[in-house]
Specification:
globular; 10-stranded mixed sheet; 27% helix; Glycosyltransferase; Beta-galactosidase, Chain A, domain 5; 6-stranded antiparallel sheet
Length: 780
């Protein structure tokens, strides 16, 4: 057997949906004799994880200077418990924040931003004996663990820290040198009040919750019990254990409402978990993270962007899980913010887009939450529309409740078109359901379509239909609604017209797939036939019929039909010119542009096949907005923009809208080499492909659902298509005029596309970067 290389053989399938690699010949190579295809060299077991280990170790964040803010420091999380780590302001200590995505107030009479807001919990300070003189930390992505050394003038503190994957437990092991044996941990409970109180006027009658009570309990367990005025409590319990030279702090957070049961659960959890040495706790934690990363693979020759991408995969799994709350604006890492809730007019949508291509549907809290809490959305409608309509307000708590202090001041959260001042923002549920539709399309799981998407989208569109009326021109028009964040209400608002059109089209397609003869189908067809054209002027898309796009604006709410809905794609010269003009006009106004302006512009450029422009916009994002630890800030901490930048990268590497898988549709010229493996596409295909020296060498698709397979492979000249056993597969030109081919694949089958006569090496490995780049974090 040859000496194992550091390259990994691509297997044709596995129990993990094609993500696991094996150290044996792939099935395709095994049957290569009859197909006149030489076998791929075998690789030894050691090389199984080399590709992942290489890119993840390279992407580790490092700190050789002390971080002083949320935007600079390491962060740990498991979708619920989160800890951001940085210097305690003005003190010779290190802060470990303790925050939890389920901890919130329960006073709906004060609305989602005060009465239902996420509540700060507090933080621990690690207080050394001596004065801090230096540090050397590494956030090890592969293990989701912070490791390193804190140096003082009295010695060193060597630490390891993790937020356990399965429990709301932070474990920090510290091994002090002789001079630092007297270091200590101190817990500082936060005032249990809405973080928005520091930024906006407080509603009449709103007061903070009472101070937390800190006490010591049997078994050397301490706890901070935070009672809530509404009933219930949240509790932080902790215990420190010494084993040899190491001292390990175990911290658990629990929340209960309306009963006060969190204390007993937190105490019991800490007593149980603290019996486990740090290494024992780490074994299942690391196993989960190792398996998580191996579900997909991406390597690009831009070292800075590649590292950024893998950090976002870490970040999204640290912030999101299917059974955890839908991410609030700062994820589980709550900090002082004017936005202590979940935002549904852009933030949620952008936060979750990257889970589809990266093959991480286990993080899809949006589909789960909309299905689970749909009944709460009924109460967000005005009483006259609750029988057949649904909507979601701009902001909610974890159970999709907005509360009484709404933008309508009427006790319901979704405004009435043409009636409710100041901002009848109607399209948010329909846009959120587009994320659900993406989950359906990337899995072809009919239960998502039948149980969640169809019934909720039907009611979201029914709300629009109450107000859609014919005008003097014979077209169907909407009364005044609000385009997120631009200012002013407008008739025929593009945000709503575009979502309405997508919703009607999707309902018709879904009804056909589900075999439903829906009585509303004729009305949906009428909308698509008679809807007024999207308002435009000489600069492109307007906000609506009454409001041109005439000032700097960070949001692309007026362009959703281009991205992410892909209704307008530049299929002819006029449509392409409209998109280009609208895009240039939008980003041409400096002043209010923010980070997600540039992720949206990058994805729209990728749609048009403009890889250089897409990379330029990502470069603007990186240089102007992304912080040292890849977090993002506006007037408060928010996390949607870096996560959406990962999706912009996806859009450059693969697009699968409109029933066509497009491989490498928008790469800049400098990205001559690229590797992607088990990228999930619409139609439930897993895509693997390699580009070498500016040429696509091979493309492989595994069908999980047997959906129609059309692929624009990008390989010049005649091609060969082979199945998982190396045998030739028939294919036909798809008739799209861009070289796409149609391959008939049943569920579980695969197709390998190569240039005719080419026998490429089917190995997955990182590509060589074009240039060196600094690590993320705060290196020396």
């Amino acid at each position: 057997m040859p000496t194992p290389s550091r390259r990994t053989v691509l297997a044709t399938g596995s129990a993990l949906g094609g993500a696991a690699l094996v150290g044996t010949l792939p099935a395709q190579a095994t049957a290569a004799t009859t197909a006149e295809q030489p076998p791929v060299r075998p690789v030894g077991p050691r090389a199984e994880a080399d590709a992942w280990r290489s890119v993840l170790d390279d992407a580790d964040l490092v700190w050789q200077k002390m971080p002083t803010t949320w935007y600079e420091g390491p962060y740990l999380g498991n979708g619920r418990l989160g800890s951001g780590i940085y210097q305690e302001p003005g003190k010779n200590a290190v802060r470990f924040n303790i925050q939890h995505s389920e901890v919130q107030d329960h006073r709906p009479e004060f609305g989602s931003l005060f009465g239902l807001a996420r509540l700060p919990i507090g933080y621990f300070t690690l207080e050394p004996v001596g004065t801090i003189t230096g540090l050397d930390w590494r956030l090890r992505l592969r293990d989701a663990e912070l490791t390193g050394t804190l140096t003082t003038d009295k010695g060193t503190l060597t630490l390891r820290a993790q937020v356990d994957n399965a429990r709301s437990v932070l474990a920090v092991e510290v091994t002090p040198s002789a001079g630092e044996r007297g270091f200590r941990w101190v817990f500082h409970p936060a005032e249990a009040t809405s973080p928005r109180a520091a930024f906006k006027p407080i509603p009449d009658g709103y007061t903070a919750n009472p101070p937390a009570e800190v006490g010591r309990y049997a078994g050397d367990v301490s706890a901070s019990v935070q009672s809530l005025l509404s009933g219930g409590e949240h509790v932080t319990a902790w215990r420190e254990r010494t084993r040899g030279a190491a001292r390990t702090l175990y911290v658990d957070v629990e929340h209960s409402y309306p009963k006060s049961t969190a204390r007993d659960k937190a105490l019991a959890t800490v007593r149980l978990v603290s019996n486990l040495p740090y290494d024992a706790l780490a074994v299942p934690h690391r196993a989960w993270w190792h398996a998580y990363y191996r579900k997909s693979f991406l390597s690009v020759p831009d070292a800075r962007i590649q590292r950024f991408y893998w950090i976002q995969l870490y970040k999204v799994a640290a912030a999101a899980r299917r059974d955890a709350p839908v991410m609030a604006t700062s994820g589980p890492w709550l900090e002082p913010t004017p936005w202590p809730a979940t935002w549904w007019n852009l933030n949620v949508q952008l936060e979750y887009w990257l889970i589809h291509g990266s093959n991480h549907l286990e993080l899809d809290a949006v589909t789960r939450a909309l299905g689970e809490f749909r009944d709460n959305l009924t109460a967000e409608m005005a009483p006259a529309y609750r029988a057949d309509s649904l909507g979601i307000p701009r902001t909610t708590d974890v159970s999709l409740v907005n509360g009484g202090a709404t933008s309508t001041s009427q006790g319901y959260g979704v405004g009435i078109p043409g009636q409710d001042p100041p901002t009848p923002e109607v399209g948010n549920l329909t846009w959120a359901l587009h994320n659900v539709w993406l989950s359906y399309r990337h899995t072809m799981d009919e239960s998502i379509l039948r149980d969640t998407l169809y019934p909720l989208l039907r009611k979201a569109i029914a709300y629009y239909l109450h107000f859609l009326e014919p005008g003097a021109d014979g077209k169907l028009h909407l009364p005044a609604t609000f385009s997120p964040e631009y200012g002013g209400n407008t008739r025929d608002c593009n945000y709503d017209l575009m979502l309405l059109s997508w919703g009607c089209r999707t309902l018709l397609e879904s009804a056909e797939l589900l075999g439903i003869e829906d009585e509303s189908a004729p009305r949906w067809r009428e909308v698509l036939t008679k809807r007024v054209a999207y308002p435009t002027d000489g600069n492109g898309f307007m906000i609506g019929a009454d409001i041109p796009f005439a000032k700097s604006h960070r949001h692309y709410s007026h362009m959703l039909a281009v991205y992410p809905l892909y209704e307008l794609t530049g299929r002819d010269a006029d449509e392409r010119a409209l998109i280009e003009k609208s895009l240039a006009h939008w980003v041409g106004f400096e002043g209010a542009l923010q980070g997600y302006t540039f992720t949206g512009a990058a994805s729209m450029s990728a749609l048009l096949g403009k890889g250089e422009d897409a990379l330029k916009y990502l470069g603007e994002l990186m240089s102007r907005f992304i912080q040292a630890n890849t977090m993002y800030k506006e007037s408060g901490p928010v996390i949607e923009t870096p996560l959406s930048a990962a999706q912009s990268l996806h859009d450059m590497v693969c697009q699968s809208w409109g029933g066509v898988v497009r491989v490498f549709p928008a790469l800049p010229a400098t990205w001559a080499d690229l590797t992607v493996h088990d990228f999930r596409t619409q139609g439930a295909f897993l895509l693997s492909a390699v580009r070498e020296k500016g040429v696509t060498r091979w493309v492989r698709l595994v069908s999980e659902a047997g959906a129609p397979c059309v692929v624009r492979h990008g390989i010049a000249g005649p091609v060969e298509v082979r199945d998982g056993h190396g045998r030739r597969l028939s294919y036909e030109d798809a008739g799209t005029g861009d070289g796409a081919i149609r391959i008939r694949l049943r569920k579980g089958e695969s197709a390998l596309v190569t240039a005719a006569g080419d026998r490429p090496d089917l190995r997955i490995e990182p590509v060589t970067p074009n240039a060196r780049a600094a690590r993320w974090g705060m290196p020396a």
